[in-house]
Structure formats: C-alpha cells, structure tokens
Amino acid sequence: MKTKLIIVFTILSQSIIAQIAQVSHGNSGYFSAKEFSKEISLYRAKQFLIEEVLKTENKVIQFDLDPLAATNSGELTSLGYKCEEKGEEGILLGFYGSYWNAAGVVYQGYRFKNLSRDMALELLNKITKTIKDSNDFLSKNPDNNNVYFKFDDLVVLIYTPISEPIIRVFWEDFDAEWTSTAFKRTKKRYEKSLK
C-alpha cells in the first residue's frame, strides 16, 4: 500500500511541478524579486529606450541609463536616462506582474512607461506634494483614508496603513506598489543626476 501511495504522489508532484514556469537567473533557476527587477530591467530597458524613445539610426548614438531604484516586490523599477546627442532625458518606469496563460503556466509580464524630464519631475513633485498636503487626512484614519490623482495615463493612489505612505501606480493592466523608500530614492537620485 505504501508503495502505491508513493508512486501516486510522485506522479502528481511531477505533473504539478511541470505546470510552473521557471525563470532562470544565473545558474540557480530561482530569483528574488529585487534581483530580477534591477538586473533584468536594466537589460530590457536598453532595447525599449533605443527603439521607442531615441529611435534607431544608422549612426553611433551615446546614452546613459542608470537604474535609480527598485521596489522589494519587483513590481516597479525606475531608470534614469540621458542622451545629449538627441536632447532626450527622463525616467523609464518598468512595470512587472505575474500572469497566467490558458494552460495555467505562470509567466512574468513587463512594460516600460517613458516620462520625459519635465513629466518625470512633475510626477515626482506631485506625489511628494500630495503626500505632504494630505498627511492630516491620511493619518486620521489610516485604514480607510486614501487619496488619488491621475497623471497622464497613470493613476496614483496613496494611503498610509503604516508609518510610511504606500504609493500604488495603476497603468494599463499593471498595479504596482512603489514603496516610500524606493520612491524617495528615485526622486533623490534623479534630481542629483540633473545637476
């Protein structure tokens, strides 16, 4: 009887394992969200920046692309870019999420949102001002009070269930949490890069 149970559990566990898509990171086959977000975002953002923002040409173009901050969850990564030759600079927001196809296989989906220099500064400053101006309202009832605003095609939701505000950014079918630490790091590093 024990042998039959072992065989049945072995067959079931093999079929379950086969349904889970593994994303390789180095030699381990596993990844943590922050490693995935920072390393892979920088790699993937280069193609997006070249093709969608700077546009490909038949000449050599130089640009800087710097990962500013990644959330611990890996849902949102910010990268600052600058191309003096094209007069382009700004922030790319990398959005990540888990999706399932019809067969039940899990995979990572991602997209980048380009914010020009002026748009990036406007968004960063608007979030900072909203948090400051709404602090009394948010702290009155941290479990229930929320504020939100629309910026371009992003919707930004802010609430404070703990001592630090939580910033959620909705864009297309992504729902990414931008932690207060990652947001502050993005703002500080981006503003420093402009000097």
Low-pLDDT regions:
12-35
Number of strands: 8
Widest beta sheet: strand line-up: 1-2-3-4
What is the helix/strand order?
HHEEEEHHEEEEH
Give the helices and strands, then pairings.
Layout: H1 2-18, H2 33-54, E1 64-70, E2 76-83, E3 88-100, E4 106-116, H3 117-133, H4 135-140, E5 146-151, E6 154-159, E7 166-171, E8 174-179, H5 180-193
Report what the structure shows.
The protein has 195 residues and is α+β, with helices and mostly antiparallel strands. The chain has helices at 2-18, 33-54, 117-133, 135-140, 180-193, and strands at 64-70, 76-83, 88-100, 106-116, 146-151, 154-159, 166-171, 174-179. It has a four-stranded antiparallel β-sheet with strand order 1-2-3-4, with helices on both faces. Strands 5-6-7-8 form a four-stranded antiparallel β-sheet. The N and C termini lie far apart (73 Å).
In short:
The chain has 195 residues and is α+β, with helices and mostly antiparallel strands. Helix content is 39%, strand content 32%.
Features:
4-stranded antiparallel β-sheet, 5 helices, 195 residues, alpha+beta
